Amino acid sequence: QVQLVESGGGLVQAGGSLRLSCAASGRTFSNYGMGWFRQAPGKEREFVAAISRSGANTLHADSVKGRFTISRDNAKNTVYLQMNSLKPEDTTVYYCAAALLELGYSSADYTYWGQGTQVTVSS
Q: Which residues of the chain have pLDDT under 50?
């Protein structure tokens, strides 16, 4: 089992920045590819970004490319999502997830999920 706990969400004005963190415990963190997803009420979970086990390779959705950056610190068992130039349409709940697969972009690729953290961007 891998337990994931997100933090760092909140309210920010459009154009602002937030950094989400996801702390992992349980199994060896560096054995897992990590991802960030987001889901608005009534909508499907949307891929945001993924990172390989070592952190050397990343993948970002087109909707966030150039604005969001995923990274990880295996010594701290933590994955991050740096979000810059935030827009009102980025408002939703953000989830981190862990997978044995690297750089998966489907929610079905991920086995373990955090509880989510709310991000609200005001216009």
A: none
For residue 91, give Cα distances in angstroms to 12, 19, 31, 72, 78.
10, 14, 31, 23, 23
Burial tier of 19 (Cβ tally within 10 Å: 0-12, 13-18, 19+): middle
Is residue 10 within 8 A of residue 17, CB to CB? The reply is no
Q: Using an 8 Å Cβ cutoff, are 110 and 97 in contact?
A: yes
Q: Which two tokens stand for residue 59?
A: 């993948």
Which helix (H) or strand (E) segment holds residue 19: the answer is strand 18-26
Distances (CA, A) of 68 to 2, 42, 96, 101: 25, 24, 14, 22
Neighbours of 39 (CB within 10 A): 15
96 and 38 Cβ atoms separated by less than 8 Å: no
The count of residues in the chain is: 123
Per residue in 9-22, pLDDT tens? Answer: 999 999 999 999 99
